[in-house]
Specification:
Order of helices and strands: EHEHEHEEHEEEEEEEEHHH
Radius of gyration: 17 Å
Helix content: 25-40%
Oligomer: single chain
Number of helices: 7
Distance between the termini: 39 Å
Amino acid sequence: MKPEDLSAIVLTWNEEANIGRTLDELKWITQVWVVDSGSSDRTQDIATGYPNVKLVYRKFDSFSEQCNFALSLVKTPWVLNLDADHVLDKRWAQSWEACDGMPDAYITKFRYVIFGRCLRSSLYPPRVVLFRKDKCKFVQDGHAHRVAVSGRVELFPSFIYHYDEKPLRRWGLNQLNYAEQEAEKICRGNVKGMTSKIRYTGWLAPLVIVPY
């Protein structure tokens, strides 16, 4: 498929440590929509330095609503959805051109990078990041958001690095916030997926998660 058939969307808030590295690997895409929720660092300045980037502001309410707003801006038939700390493997452009476009969405595998080194494995599951605009929408799922697909899904041949260089303190505060939202989700009875089912076991969870 052609590069002009694809747009990318990226959400940002104080991502100066990451956004440049992410956008460097998106130069082959004709248009990248960066939806910023009021960064006070250099995120906006860095993003506007890329000729293929369109920067827009929207006050944050939820990840899914931010992404659906970004989706409304896209004019191409295909969309690539990335976080500001996601970095494409160097083979992405070549893999995209080789796609036949038969599926309605693609999932991709992730590799975690910590302090500049790639972990050999992690529990981070493959997720939908590449999809037809008219076949998908974003929905909130606990602390996170996901792409709801109405159609066929296949595995994309290239992967994505999860590479976050923001301070560890911010990461820790985010984990506390995410934990509260995940607990609320589980208390409502939403226990889809293996990790949610393990958490739902209560006091057994710390023991069960080790062999998992």
